[in-house]
Amino acid sequence: MALLEIDDVTRRFGDFTAVDHVTLGIEAGEFFTLLGPSGCGKTTLLRMIAGFDLPDGGRIVLDGRDLADQPPEARPLRTVFQSYALFPHMTVQGNVAFPLKMAKTPAAEAARKIDEALADVRLAGFNHRFPHELSGGQRQRVAIARALVTHPTVLLLDEPLAALDAKLREQMQIELINLQKEIGITFVYVTHDQTEALALSHRIAVMNHGRVEQLDEPDRLYGLPRTRFVADFIGTCNLLVGPVRASHGGDVAIDVADLGTVTVASTASPAPGSEGAIAVRPEKVHLGAPGATLPGDNRYAGVVESFLYQGDVTLYNVRAERGHLVEALLANSGAGLAKFFEVGDRVEMAFTASAGHYLEG
Predict the structure, then answer these.
(1) What CATH code is carried by the domain that includes residue 75?
(2) Where are the beta strands (DSSP E) in the chain?
(3) Binning pLDDT at 50, 70 and 90, where does residue 222 land?
(4) How far is CA 307 from CA 233, 290, 318, in A?
(5) pLDDT digits (tens, 9 = 90+) for 91-101
(6) In the listed set 231, 266, 301, which residue is the last one of a domain according to the structure?
(7) Alpha-carbon gap, residue 181 to 94, rounded angstroms
(8) Mind listing the pLDDT tens digit for each residue in 157-211?
(9) Which helix (H) or strand (E) holds 49?
């Protein structure tokens, strides 16, 4: 049995269904992420777990107990918000002590727990500073320490890094991973940032229009998306759509009108003539000069329309002869501004049957 069970949970606001019959299980000690675009239902689901909102149907069960009759303060859960929600007139120690004060924890025990919580987030010695004297990352860690000081069963994190700059966000991601490993409690994390979700999570539930499109480990979500939404939302993807030409021998072939026939290895058996879709990641597409030897039977000619130099890699947009725009990602082997092709260069692109993934939905 999972530590936290979401059983057929639904939440409606008038005619709008924010969470639509969601069922999933979260294991003890897991870093679990709810991922999706704005309005997909992820924050509403987190609020129902926390007790700030109540489901219209279904159950939320923690460690075998239905949480329906428990108010937020009575649940063994704590929430870290995007805004941090620190009290500006209180010191770090005062902020972290607040939930202990509400629980009427004896002073000596509270002092010990505060020191332990601050040590967990690497803020030992910051007890007497005020929030305005801290960096954004330090304020975030105070918010986490305050949530951890009562030793909750589950820590809920609602877009906790969204307000930080890119460099600090990366640093905090590493700190969150290390912290979760050290303290060993379950994290339920909400974000719209798919890169962040892939970096942090043991498993990810991708949500769309109130439903879970796919629940899987990060590498499977990226490499084996089940639906067009997941393929397009997770990372960058070439989405190739057209009628199914054939399905046999472990391969599926579709005719993409503005590209040509595309064949991928798949155990799926779609009916010939039905609409099919194939996802191909840009890093799986090989580029070469006309006549170059490239791996893969899916081979097409085109012209470089634009490119984006990103330091270690360059992302090329290639317009195929029939008009389809294909993205290819190539590593930069040279130093400085090394790149392989210029805008207007004629190229050939190719990828193997195993590089593409046939989408079931």
Answers:
(1) 3.40.50.300
(2) 4-13, 16-26, 31-35, 57-62, 65-66, 77-80, 154-158, 186-191, 203-208, 211-216, 238-248, 251-256, 260-265, 275-280, 286-288, 298-309, 313-320, 325-331, 346-351, 356-358
(3) very high
(4) 21, 18, 9
(5) 999 999 998 88
(6) 231
(7) 26
(8) 998 888 778 888 888 888 889 889 988 899 999 999 999 999 999 999 999 999 9
(9) helix 42-50
The reply to whether 25 and 159 lie within a common domain is: yes
Work out the mean pLDDT of the chain and round it to a whole number: 92
Q: What is the span of the domain harbouring residue 313?
A: 236-358
**300 shares its domain with 162:** no
Query: What is the rounded CA–CA span in Å between residue 57 and residue 118?
Result: 39
Distance separating alpha carbons of residues 39 and 19, to the nearest angstrom: 10
326, 238 Cβ separation under 8 angstroms: yes
CATH for 299: 2.40.50.140
What confidence tens digit (pLDDT) does each residue in 41-58 have?
Answer: 999 999 999 999 999 999
Q: Are residues 178 and 223 in the same domain?
A: yes
Residues in the chain: 361
Boundary of a domain, candidates 231, 255, 290: 231
Looking at the structure, tell me whether residues 195 and 253 fall in a common domain.
no
pLDDT at 360 (0 to 100): 79
Q: In sequence order, what DSSP letters do the residues of 135-185 get, joined into one string?
A: -HHHHHHHHHHHHHTT--SEEEEESTTTTS-HHHHHHHHHHHHHHHHHH--
Q: Is residue 207 located within the same domain as residue 330?
A: no
Residue-wise pLDDT for 325-343, tens only, equals: 999 999 887 555 456 899 9
In angstroms, the Cα distances linking 184 to 30, 31, 140, 231 are: 8, 9, 19, 31
CA atoms of 341 and 360, how far apart (whole Å)? 35
Pairing of strands 251-256, 260-265: antiparallel
Closest CA to 265 of 227, 298, 241: 298
Q: Do residues 208 and 337 share a domain?
A: no
88 and 20 in a single domain? The answer is yes
* Total count of domains within the chain: 2
Are residues 249 and 272 located together in one domain of the fold?
yes
**CA dist., res. 326 & res. 237, Å (int):** 9
